[in-house]
Amino acid sequence: MKISEVARAANVNVQTIRYYERRGLLPAPPRTVSGHRVYDRDAVRITRFIKSAQELGFTLTEIEDLLSLRTRAGRDRQKIRGMASVRLEDIEQRIKRLDTLRTTLRDLLEQCLCADDHLECPILDTLEPSDR
User: Fold this and answer.
1) What is the DSSP letter of 56?
2) How far is CA 14 from the centre of its chain?
3) 8 CB contacts (<8 Å, ≥6 apart)?
4) For residues 19 and 53, is the Cβ–Cβ distance under 8 A?
5) Nearest 5°: phi and psi at 37?
6) Cα(59)–Cα(57) distance, rounded to whole angstroms?
7) Is the pTM of this model over 0.85?
């Protein structure tokens, strides 16, 4: 397969494939005499694996570990589970922060009296650093 075919099949762009190769996430494929990369179907599978892991919030460094665990005989399931647990905790913390932001913005919008002619604005006042 050509790099463009892998990219299309994995729903990424060609630069993503090249970046994954540079990072060592995707093995460098053999080249033709003219220097073109020749990929096998596994490149599509690995690229999809990487994208799926990214969607779950894993970093590329963590994905590198997952890829090595994926191919290792006698997979260390406890390590994989531990990595997923850490990722889940991170997501839970982000959700809490986003929930706090949502509540704050809702409160500010409720306090906002845009139709009124006075200059005070609870949204701008909240964003303005205090001189305390």
Assistant:
1) T
2) 18
3) none
4) no
5) -70, 145
6) 6
7) no
The tokens 């990487």 sit on which residue? Answer: 50
Amino acid in the structure at residue 93: Q
The number of beta carbons lying within 10 Å of the beta carbon of residue 7 is 21
Per-residue pLDDT of the chain (132 residues; tens, 9 = 90+): 999 999 999 999 999 999 999 999 999 999 999 999 999 999 999 999 999 999 999 999 999 999 988 877 667 888 899 999 999 999 999 999 999 999 999 998 888 877 666 667 888 888 887 765
Contact 20, 26 (CB under 8 A): yes
**Contact criterion met (CB below 8 Å) for 6 and 17:** yes
Give the ranges where the chain is alpha helix by DSSP (H).
3-10, 14-23, 41-55, 60-71, 77-111, 122-127
